[in-house]
Amino acid sequence: MARYARRLQKIGSSIMISLPSGWARGNGLKKGNTVILETNKDNSLSIFSSGHEIDQAMSVSIPYPPVSMDALVNQVYGAYLLGYDIIRIKGKSQISFEDAERIKHAMRKLAGLEIIDEDGANISVQFLLDAGTLDAEKILRRMSSIVAGMYRETLEAIKNPETGLGKIITSRDDEVDRQYFLLVRLIRSAMMNPRLASKLNLSNIDILDYRIAANHLESAGDYVVDLTEAIPKTSARFADSILEAGSLVERMQEKSVTAFVNKNRSESQTITSMYLRFNQILESIKEMSAKGETKDPVTTVSVLNCIYSMDKIARCWVDVFDLVKPVYLIAPLVSEKPTER
User: Fold this and answer.
1) Could you tell me where the DSSP H helices lie in 47-135?
2) CA distance 186 to 192
3) Which residues of the chain have pLDDT under 70?
4) What is the pLDDT of residues 127-148, one digit of tens each?
5) pTM greater than 0.85
6) Separation of alpha carbons 159 and 138, rounded Å
7) Which end of the chain is less enclosed by CB atoms within 10 A, N or C?
8) Domain tally for the chain?
9) In CATH, what number is assigned to the domain containing residue 96?
């Protein structure tokens, strides 16, 4: 990314600067054209050619009947993630009740989509949220909050097994997925629209980091579901060790997500120490299992599955923290006209 230095000039009551000629040519600008200026959260200023509009609605049509309903559902998800505002299912024949219900069920997993028109052969939905008012950080924190709640209840179930917890956790994981899809849609839209990215105060590296962080959080939600299914019926000794390890993972999540959104690397040693301690506890549990202290092969397998799921969750938080932005070198100023020798 090139950077330019400009000296401020005062003409009448206005402060003016000249625009780089290369940028103007690249955007097809000439005398009399209009440009758009926006102030950012960090008090910087962004300039766009008038062609960079945020509010241009994009629509796509998906034919029915499809090769398969799985393919049609995947097309709906793909259109949503690519930033299409209006998605139409256009049938050459009547859409069956079962297929219509499956389409609607898939759409309910996509935040912001609402049905705006429906008849026997057509279903139209529209994304009704304003992308310019969304906040990537808030969506990521929302995902983290839901995952944290899922994980806390799962740890409680190790102490007091609860019937039906699996269904509750799976339902909450669906909400994690809704937030994940919304965040992916937002950052993909920001990648394609520099003006939207500027309005959201997202640099290119921020867009990439949020995409990766969202993926780790979505994976963590899936791993919590796996953990729920692997909750072992163990002796108090095993339960205490598993809960100690689980408590460390819970604290790792809080610190890593907070460090990520605040771009704070000062927690590095703390998170590293917690992960090392977590691994020590896991090795201890593995050794006890190897010695046959569970006295039941089924319980042994359950314990090992439990700590394996915990380890995958812990690795998600280590990976999130690894995304914390380091200090980048500032690019040198670029002179628009090279100095002649």
Assistant:
1) 69-81, 97-108
2) 10
3) 1, 12, 38, 40-43, 48-57, 161-163, 232-237, 292-298, 325-341
4) 999 888 899 999 999 999 999 9
5) no
6) 32
7) C
8) 3
9) 3.30.110.140
